[in-house]
Amino acid sequence: MARRRKGxxxxxxxxxxxxxxxxxxxALQKVKRIFFAxxxxxxxxxxxxxxxxxxxxxxxxxxxxxxxxxxxxxxxxIAKLGERTDTSDSDGEVVETRDVKVDRGQLERxxxxxxxxxxxxxxxxxxxxxxxxxxxxxxxxxxxxxxESRKITVYSVELxxxxxxxxxxxxHVSKGTYIRTIVDDLGEMLGxxxxxxxxxxxxxxxxxxxxxxxxxxxxxxxxxxxxxDIAPRELLDPLLLPTDTAVQDLPEVNILPMLATYILHGxxxxxxxxxxxxxxxxxxxxxxxxxxxVGVIDEEGMLAPKRVMANKPA
Length: 314
What we know:
It contains eight helices and 16 strands.
């Protein structure tokens, strides 16, 4: 019996505009099938209710997905005041209803308190794990488990609209920030409760909004390829961003081609113009500035590889 193909090797990043109503993993599996990719992973889950930018890494790019998980994010959110839900969003059950006696001045003063670095306790409906299981699994069983607070930074939060008991905001936040929790905390601060009714991720790292594609667009390209009797990759692969865009925020260290062999085999090298000890860097080679991996400057000032590309010419 012939072995079933698992997919083709493809490297790069696609910026999916995730639709509402499906999980990030469902979206990932759909995109993986469309590209017939051998290996794929997403870079930070969005709730089923949420839409927007979900970078999906293929092949070698999955090695560097953690850098996107750790990057800043931007969101637009609409919150409804007067109702608190068990999930802090409109997918949950309303657990408390209160009158809304809030004016714009009070709202702006409360919003301002979220700017800067604070401690946040993750929601029980988050994907964080406790004893190997996601917190949301415990929550669905009615089990409350201990969660440690984490440091988050809200670089900016702007009030866009306040009308009909709805609050619309834009936020720029650090990794690991739960917008649902901010909205729930804001509702408690205002004394009326609140939950998320709309959430859209508008930015991850420095990726451009205009490079996002929808599942409908990908399906249409797949159908077009079938109509034209051409390989789908001819229409799909031009949408991919280079693998090294996942680490575009890291400083670059360019090395001579003769040193690449050592890096690719896991050995540190002496490189010129390196940043301070402990700095993570993007490693490129020669005049083409070909990306071969990520390294760190060790205590001796050497460039030590951390994650390198496979099948690169030495």
